[in-house]
Specification:
The chain is α+β, with helices and mostly antiparallel strands. It is 38% helix and 10% strand. The chain has a two-stranded antiparallel sheet.
Length: 81
Amino acid sequence: MLKAGVPALTRGRLSHVDQNYFRPETVGAANARLIEAQAEVAFARALGGGLVASVDGLRFVVPVTTVNAARTLATSGCAVA
């Protein structure tokens, strides 16, 4: 992702963005806005109103909030040896 000559893609800038913008509260707020916007799309409403997770072509209806939802080590690229 680093690219010489592109200020937005320097190691320092990407590190700053990662540390200051990708926090649980900011990602959660952004996700809520996306779900709200998607709920306005007729096709998305027909598929679950923005509350559907899709993995490998399988659809799973998910609640708006859940304490059990989290990424897993096996699927997040952090495989345990």
